[in-house]
Amino acid sequence: MSANQHICEHCGSPSVQLKHVTRSFGKGANLLVIEGIPLWSCSNCGESYFTAATMHEVERIKTLRRSVAVSRPVSVAAFEAQAHA
User: Fold this and answer.
1) What global pTM score does this model have?
2) What DSSP letter does each residue of the chain carry, written as one string?
3) CB 36 within 8 A of CB 62
């Protein structure tokens, strides 16, 4: 196994891929969007998870949001299922 290959923490499969996702925290005036969060995803069992180090960094960003975040206008839409005739 190469040094860059990871094993799924749930099923032990080497079919784990690193993805980068965007997540939102809070709402309204307290909304914070964090982009580029590393997420491990297993194509064998379907589980996805963040490492402890990633979660610590997310918490650090949330704590320091005033000094590390930039303001951007954001459009928000609600998903509404269409009734099928």
Assistant:
1) 0.76
2) --TT----TTT--S-EEEEEEEEEES-GGG-EEEEEEEEEEETTT--EE--HHHHHHHHHHHHTHHHH------------PPPP-
3) no
- If one counts the domains in the chain, the total is 1
Distances in Å between the alpha carbon of 79 and those of 64, 70, 74, 82? 31, 26, 16, 9
- Residue 19, domain CATH: 3.10.20
19 alpha carbon, distance to own chain's centre: 9
- Provide the residue range defining the domain that includes 38: 1-85
pLDDT digits (tens, 9 = 90+) for 24-80: 999 888 899 999 999 999 999 999 999 999 999 999 999 999 899 999 888 888 888
